[in-house]
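In this notation, each integer encodes one residue's backbone shape. One such record reads:

___
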Amino acid sequence: DWSTDDAAKYRFRQDPGAGNAMASVKINFPSPDGVYMHDTPQQSLFGKMMRFDSSGCVRVQNVRDLVTWILRDTPGWDRQHFEAAIKTGENTPIQITNPVPVHFLYLSAWSTAPGVVQFRDDVYAL
């Protein structure tokens, strides 16, 4: 019965891999809202002009290039080792040597160089 207090004791987790909704990579960072960056098995989404196909986290195109850059100063985690870890299919948390600050800017209005103001729908109702 999912309406009982016991229901909160269960945790569901999807194994890493190609069928995972986050594909091969999840990048955690401090976030009061539990937001993180991740890979996606739906690479075709990056070809869409408007892509609001998210549950609140951030899909990253070419995520393995980003991870390689993030791990650049972390001993033992060059691209080759990182790719090998992905191939194991195991959940492999990695503590980075030099944390990278993460800042997101969400804009629904801005102006262009000639002074033309652009407006877009606030799809996230922020």
Q: What stands out?
A: The CA atoms of residues 52 and 123 lie 8 Å apart. The radius of gyration is 18 Å.
